[in-house]
Amino acid sequence: MSALNIKRIKIVPDKPYVSTCDVKIYDEVNGKDRKRCTIKLEYSKYDIEELKKEGLGYEEIINHYKDWIYLTIKRHLGYEWESDSGYEELIQIVENAVKKQFK
With contact defined as beta carbons under 8 Å apart, do 9 and 76 qualify? Predict the structure, then answer.
């Protein structure tokens, strides 16, 4: 897919809870932000332990969540996408949750 077909989005995570975080996705239309969808990111102790049972280590679990986030947003938008803001913050939320299960 060419760069012209990649949707530029803003990712706005709500305040994270112990095991979930709601995430709003916006794009820009005519200079104004337009809410496209909301996804729920789940990273409970149980979820992470299940991934560990499958043999995934810390980095593999982080990559699992990155892939899940990308594909879930892509499915809602119907486009490839890149984030202008919020992605790093969202990944930090995931990393913090996963780190707790590796102590």
Answer: no
In whole angstroms, what is the distance from residue 83 CA to residue 15 CA?
Answer: 19
In 3D space, the residue among 82, 102, 38, 40 whose CA is nearest the CA of residue 65 turns out to be 40
Domain containing 37: what range?
3-100
Nearest to residue 69, comparing CAs of 1, 13, 3?
13
Instruction: Tell me the CA end-to-end span of the chain in Å, nearest whole number.
Output: 41
Closest CA to 37 of 65, 78, 5: 78
- For the entire predicted model, the pTM comes to 0.91
Q: pLDDT (tens digit, 0 to 9) for every residue of the chain, 103 residues total?
A: 455 678 999 999 999 999 999 999 999 889 899 999 999 999 999 999 999 999 999 999 999 999 999 999 999 999 999 999 999 999 999 999 999 999 8
Q: What domain count does the chain have? A: 1
